[in-house]
Amino acid sequence: xxxxxxxxxxxxxxxxxxxxxxxxxxxxxxxxxxxxxxxxxxxxxxxxxxxxxxxxxxxxxxxxxxxxxxxxxxxxxxxxxxxxxxxxxxxxxxxxxxxxxxxxxxxxxxxxxxxxxxxxxxxxxxxxxxxxxxxxxxxxxxxxxxxxxxxxxxxxxxxxxxxxxxxxxxxxxxxxxxxxxxxxxxxxxxxxxxxxxxxxxxxxxxxxxxx
Length: 211
What we know:
alpha+beta
C-alpha cells in the first residue's frame, strides 16, 4: 500500500514538473512573432519583406505601409523635412512651413499631376502634431479637399526574432475626401495609386541620404 502511494506521488510529481516546463513555452513562442509586421495578414507580410509597399482600404480611407532598413532617427528626419518634400515626393510641386511651434506646425503643400490631357492642381494647408520619432498627426485646415486627416507612424522592426531592430515599418493612415466639384471615384483611384509611389519615394530618399 505504501509503495503504491509512493508510486502515485512520484507520477504526480513528474506530471507537475512536465506542466511547469511546458507552460512558459507557448507565451514565449508567441512573443517572438508579435511585432508590427508579424501581426499583419501573410500576404501583406510577404510583400513588405520583399521591399514592396502595401496599400489597403477604399473610398478615401487608406492604410499604406512599407519597410525601410534604417533607424527611427533617419526615417524621422526624412518624414519631417517639410520644406524639402517637393524634392523627392512625386507630383508635389511645393511644400512650405507656414508656422513652427516646435512639435506643432502648419504646412502648406501643392500637388500637381497630369490626368489624361488635364493638369490637376490641389492645395492643402495642414496642422501637424509631432510625437518625437513615433508619430506625425495631421488634419486639414484649408484647401481644395473637403477632408484630409490621419497620421504617419514609425515602428522599429527586427527581421530576426530577439535581435535588435534593423528596420522601420512606416505606416501612413489617411482619410482624404474630395470637394463636391471633384468626381469622387476618379479622386479615390488617383489618390490610392499615389500612396504606393509616395512610400517608395520616401524609402529611396532614406537610402540615398544614409547609405
